[in-house]
Amino acid sequence: MEKVSKEWKTTDSIQPVGRKQFLKMVLGVFSLSWAGMALYPVYRYLSSGNSDATSAESNVSSVTVCKVAELPVNTGKNFQFGSSPAIVIHAQDGSFHAFKAVCTHLGCTVQYRSDKSLIWCACHGGCYNPDTGKNVSGPPPKPLPALVVKVENDSIVVSIT
Ligand code: FES
């Protein structure tokens, strides 16, 4: 039986790494990692203009949400308009209103509160007028973008124009 030597022997192909060389390698890896972390958000920002989500939203010009009978007076219904959430409201005067349902504060999805007759954001309590989409209380800085509502063949159709 062959005896295994406990000593490590260096060969010509494997050179021991000195302290200076090791520190250079660590510094190189750290620099590459840092550069990647710094440049990745820039890459994401620059490439976001061509994302599928943006093109999916731009391809949608109208959505049939539901039948009129399915949305009683003083109720709202959230739905997808392309890639972004939207909301349609059957107001107390019988009219319909629709908006993008992305809160203008920090982007949470808003909903209709029948008990308050307001569009409400659960994240920080922001409120919008359900007839105009105007921000009326809480932190939202701007109104909700409006969409156009039409009733066609007893269905509620929401479109951009
Ligand atoms: S995200 Fe809607 S109120 Fe803050």
Q: Which sequence of SSEs, written as H and E, runs from N to C?
A: HHEEEEEEEEEE
Q: What is the average of the pLDDT values?
A: 86
CATH topology of the largest domain: Rieske Iron-sulfur Protein
Ligand types: FE2/S2 (inorganic) cluster
The rough form would be described as elongated
Number of helices: 2
CATH class of the largest domain: Mainly Beta
Largest sheet: 6 strands, antiparallel
Query: Beta-strand level of the residues, as a percent range?
Result: 25-35%
Number of separate strands: 10
Strand order of the largest sheet: 1-10-9-4-3-2
Low-pLDDT segments: 51-55
Instruction: Classify the helix fraction into a percent range.
Output: 10-25%
Structural class: alpha+beta
Q: Count up the domains.
A: 2
Rg, Å, rounded = 29 Å
CATH superfamily of the largest domain: Rieske [2Fe-2S] iron-sulphur domain
CATH A-level architecture of the largest domain: 3-layer Sandwich
Oligomeric state = single chain
Tell me about this structure:
With 161 residues, the chain is an alpha+beta fold. It has 2 helices and 10 strands. It has 2 domains: 19-49; 58-159, Rieske [2Fe-2S] iron-sulphur domain (Rieske Iron-sulfur Protein), CATH 2.102.10.10. The chain has helices spanning 19-47, 52-59, and strands at residues 62-67, 75-81, 84-90, 96-100, 111-113, 118-120, 127-128, 135-137, 146-152, 155-159. A hairpin with a 6-residue loop joins strand 6 (118-120) and strand 7. The protein starts with 18 loop residues before the first helix and ends with a strand. The structure holds FE2/S2 (inorganic) cluster. FE2/S2 (inorganic) cluster is lined by residues 103, 105-106, 108, 121, 123-124, 126, 138-140. Residues 103, 105-106, 108, 121, 123-124, 126, 138-140 line the site of FE2/S2 (inorganic) cluster.
